[in-house]
Design goal:
single chain; alpha/beta; Rossmann fold; seven-stranded mixed sheet; 12 helices; globular
Length: 281
């Protein structure tokens, strides 16, 4: 079965988007033997920093990979003159292997300068995936998207089959999710009518909900349009060491969050399988 392409996205920062994206990718690759590609399209490139720190490759990125543009920026390059032809980008140009089953297209803060020719750049990720037949080479392709409306957000969603929304149980995060639904609807009308909601995953949750938290959660899940969308039963708990621990912010490195991410991954696989079965009749 061709790989599903999934954007991890919310219009609110600080909701654990990158932690969830990298956490699911790393667990699927290292513990469930799935072949995963992560594309870091967020100019903050936190996914890149997380994974390179985990594998002690930060210096390599600074000294070699980023200066040589073995990053997402290579994909977004466009001709600088009318006489210059567009360059084909190969797998070897941009994909970095970080583990046996885990590959990355590393992020690059310098893509903030690559915003001209939006109509061309908005399809760059999709075209790269298709031209290199990446859905035949991986089980899953993840895109870590920016928490803002931008060319890069649109490029991620245009390339995706599904979008997954990490969300904290608070009013601000719910507001961000509400804004996201509007963005998705516009994109479905204009660019990618096939993209579907994979679900909402609660992050940074306490072991026990307060009455206020439970009320926010219940109101969120029962208010249109969210009442017609999927909410994961499993969630990523608040684990202090995951935020500030010396072993980095990869969930599988800590006992509590490892169990959380294991259960989320299993539900994630089941959810995609069910959607694919529905699609195939």
């Amino acid at each position: 079965m061709p790989a599903s392409v999934i954007s991890f996205i919310n219009m609110k920062g600080g909701v654990g988007k990158t932690t969830l994206c990298v956490g699911i990718a790393e667990y699927l690759a290292n513990y469930m033997q799935k072949s995963v590609l992560v594309i870091d399209i967020d100019p903050q490139f936190n996914a890149t920093q997380s994974i390179l720190n985990q594998y002690n490759r930060v210096d390599e990125y600074i000294e070699i990979l980023q200066p040589q543009k073995k990053t997402i920026r290579r994909i977004f390059e466009t001709p600088t003159s009318l006489m210059e032809e567009a360059k084909e980008v190969s797998i070897d140009d941009v994909i970095t292997k970080v583990a046996d089953n885990l590959d990355f297209i590393l992020g690059d803060i310098n893509i903030i300068f690559d915003t001209a020719q939006e109509a061309v750049r908005i399809v760059k990720i999709k075209k790269f995936i298709e031209d290199n037949k990446l859905t035949d080479k991986y089980d899953y392709i993840f895109i870590d998207s920016p928490p803002t409306i931008s060319l890069f957000t649109d490029a991620a969603l245009v390339a995706s089959d599904y979008y997954l929304v990490p969300v904290k149980i608070d009013h601000y995060s719910v507001l961000g999710a509400t804004s996201l639904i509007g963005v998705i609807r516009n994109l479905q009308r204009n660019h990618n009518p096939k993209i579907k909601n994979l679900g909402f995953v609660y992050t940074n949750t306490a072991d026990r909900f307060t009455d206020k938290t439970f009320k926010i959660k219940e109101q969120f899940e029962t208010t249109p349009p969210f009442n017609d969308l999927y909410f994961f039963q499993n969630r990523l708990s608040f684990v202090r060491d995951l935020m500030v621990g010396g072993r980095g912010n990869i969930p599988s490195r800590y006992l509590k969050s490892r169990q959380d991410i294991k259960e989320i991954c299993q539900e994630f696989i089941d959810r995609i399988t069910n959607l694919e079965n529905e699609h195939n009749g």
